[in-house]
Amino acid sequence: MSARVAYLERADRGGRLLGLRLIAGRGEASWRATPTGSDEDAAARIAEDAERAADWVREELGKGAKRELAAICLDPDGAVCSWLTTPTSDPSALAATLRQASLTDAGASPIDGGGMEHGLVAAAAFGPDAQIPGGATVEALGTNRDSGGALGGSAHAGAGVAAATRRAVISAPDTPARLFLDQLDRLGMPTPPVMTLWHAMARAWTPPEAPSDETQSVVLVEPSGRVAWCWSRDGALLAAGRLRLPAARLHDPAAAEQAISRLNTEWLAWSAQLGVHPSRLACVTPEPDEGDADSTEAPASEAPFADTLARGLRRAWPSAQVELATLRDPVGATLRQLLATDAPESAGDAAHGLQTLSARPGRAHRGMYRWLAAAIGAAAVLVALIGWRVRATARDARADAEALRDQRRDLLVEHDPRLERARRPIDELRSQLGALQSQSQLPSNVRPLSPVMGELDAVTLVLQGIEGVELLSLNFSQVLPQLEIAVPDVATYEAVRESLNAIPSQVESWTSGGPPSQQRVGGEVKLKAVFRGDWPDPNQAGGPL
């Protein structure tokens, strides 16, 4: 026993749990709820039954290798599938539409929506549970009809106005199912996909080779007399319904004719709404009881009810292919076929399962919220610590700034006590500094001193290096440097002139006052020459420093 499906049997329009069947590929186990007592403790008894059912499932799953459910299937008791005209398929909006419709006059709320905005249908079509917040799961199957009546179309509205679309909506009372899921979560079991028997029929009895655009109908008759039917396309539920036959007349051909009449009435209405009709009909009926007189009259026809049902559907829908399967347990066979076909995983829309229950928050969600809350709390503490640290840093910075202001004030007072009362002491200091700098600058008409000593050393060194030169006089002033020499000949005179102008000097040039003249110097006749230099202009670049 590996994958198993839990089938919830309910009563009182799906509001009370009768029993639970745990169906596997080759066997099953069942659990029955205790009889309900007085109405006063009915709510507590429903919760107790859900808890006991979950404990029993956990115990049964503990005997196998796989300790989780493949799916949970709800019987169609109290479930309704009908049309609703709304601008959205959001489950909360659908439930609000039904509750709003319950407050209006059913006579003023026609199915077509005339006379009311968005076409609210009579809430009575979906039963009283859909009118109670949280009383039933209300989901759109995804099949809608536009103004032209095409399946899958969408209505058009004016700019800024939501388009009201007619949608096939399923309403399933789910109080026992929600309590059962919560108890499974309490035991640490993950939430499996949740579906109705209609979804299971659509997915189990769709042949793998069936075209994806072919509409198939499945009629399932239970031994209790309940008849469930569904239309599907590629395993996705399009429409569904249920009716009740007297269990005592279940194998009476007259009861089959009655079922055919009611089925044809509903199917014609749905065909007009969807714009399609079934191409394949599958009838799943129970085997006749061994003590049934009708089942022993003619050996050739051991199931007159099933044969009458198949012939009647074939007569009403001549273009459809009708298949008949007579089984001991139609519901169990359907769920086993579902397990054998594929894993009953939710496909993410209401046409394959009840998404609201399949995504019901559990222990993992609560754990995620707890960790998220803890992370937010830790982030808040970290932000508080950072804020405290920033505030402390700002306080220290203000204290340092105050200390610097006190230190600056002490320095200013030490320099000039008058600055203590000054409104802008820094500007006052700048003014005093500017005045001192102005006083320390030399007048612009004062000529800078020339480097007399350096030039004197350079000239002396040049004269010593030339033989026959005799220095007669030397006058280096700040205005005009001048020297007078005696040389033996003109060649020596030229050598002196060239050497004076060749040395690195602050004197711009050395020039002679005229050609050298002959004079007797120390008893010898020599040439006397006078050289004058020019100091550079201090107002031009390169002047003496």
Structure description:
This protein is an alpha+beta fold and about 550 residues long. It is about 35% helix and about 25% strand. It contains twelve helices and 18 strands. The strands form four sheets. Strands 3-2-1-4-8 form a five-stranded mixed sheet. Strands 11-10-9-12-13 form a five-stranded mixed sheet, with helices on both faces. Helix 4 packs across helix 7. The longest helix is centred in the last third of the chain and has 53 residues. The two termini are about 110 Å apart.
What's the helix and strand layout?
Layout: E1 4-11, E2 16-24, E3 28-32, H1 42-61, E4 71-74, E5 80-86, H2 91-102, E6 136-145, E7 165-173, H3 175-186, E8 194-196, H4 197-204, E9 215-221, E10 226-233, E11 236-244, H5 253-274, E12 280-286, H6 304-316, E13 321-327, H7 330-341, H8 355-358, H9 363-415, H10 425-440, H11 452-464, E14 470-476, E15 481-487, H12 490-502, E16 510-512, E17 517-521, E18 524-533
Parallel strand pairs: 1-4, 4-8, 9-12, 12-13
Antiparallel strand pairs: 1-2, 2-3, 5-7, 6-7, 9-10, 10-11, 14-15, 15-18, 16-18, 17-18
Helix pairs in contact: 1-3, 4-7, 5-6
